[in-house]
């Protein structure tokens, strides 16, 4: 099952809001951080299940991987945390939720700038042509080698 990048973004924003309510000291996710979480979710899901989590391409931007539709939706927040978004309507599969929670737990702890630096050091971004779609083959190879075990 494939979702839209905006639906996956809403999952991260809603999960972040839940953590804010539970823990109280969780920071809001900025657009830049959200973009990197989308990239890591896309890469992990693709590497594990050999399927795209969403159909929109991951672009290689100046500040790292991004999804154009999500950028357009949240760019007005600038570097500030995203505080206004729609509630989650989509029901995610157990597989998708497992990957999204893994990404949030493993990468959500980093700042947007740290995630930017991490993605800049990774092969898929380094091998991509600026402002073009990143290669799914490069993403899969990198994620299988560095982050996930194929089930």
Task: Please provide a written account of the structure.
It is a single chain. The chain has 7 helices and 2 strands. With 151 residues, the chain is mostly helical. The chain has one domain. The longest helix has 19 residues. The protein is globular. The two termini are 17 Å apart.
- Which regions are unreliable across 5 or more consecutive residues at pLDDT < 50? none
Question: What spatial order of strands do you see in the largest sheet?
Answer: 1-2
- Helix share bin: 55-70%
Can you summarize the main beta sheet? Answer: 2 strands, antiparallel
Indicate the overall shape. Answer: globular
What is the number of helical segments per DSSP (H or I, 4+ residues)? 7
Count of extended strands: 2
Radius of gyration: 14 Å
End-to-end distance, in Å?
17 Å
β-strand amount? under 5%
Q: In terms of structural class, how would the helical and strand content be classed?
A: mainly alpha
State mean pLDDT (0 to 100 scale). Answer: 93
Give the helices and strands as they follow along the chain: HHEEHHHHH
How many distinct folded domains?
1
Search tags:
7 helices; 56% helix; globular; 151 residues; mainly alpha
Question: Could you write a compact summary of the structure shown?
Answer:
The chain is mainly α and 151 residues long. Helix content is 56%, strand content 4%.
Topology:
Layout: H1 5-23, H2 31-49, E1 59-61, E2 64-66, H3 68-74, H4 94-107, H5 112-120, H6 123-127, H7 136-146
Antiparallel strand pairs: 1-2
């Amino acid at each position: 099952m494939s979702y839209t990048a905006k639906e996956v973004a809403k999952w991260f924003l809603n999960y972040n809001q839940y953590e804010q309510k539970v823990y109280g000291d969780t920071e809001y996710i900025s657009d830049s951080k959200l973009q990197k979480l989308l990239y890591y979710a896309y890469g992990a899901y693709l590497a594990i299940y050999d399927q795209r989590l969403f159909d929109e391409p991951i672009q290689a931007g100046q500040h790292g991987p991004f999804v154009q539709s999500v950028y357009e939706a949240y760019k007005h927040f600038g570097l500030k945390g995203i505080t206004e978004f729609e509630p989650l309507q989509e029901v995610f599969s157990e597989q998708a939720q497992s990957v999204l929670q893994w990404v949030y737990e493993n990468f959500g702890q980093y700042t947007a700038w740290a995630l930017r630096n991490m993605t800049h050091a990774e092969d898929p971004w380094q091998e991509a042509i600026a402002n073009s779609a990143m290669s799914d083959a490069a993403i899969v190879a990198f994620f299988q080698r560095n982050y996930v075990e194929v089930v």
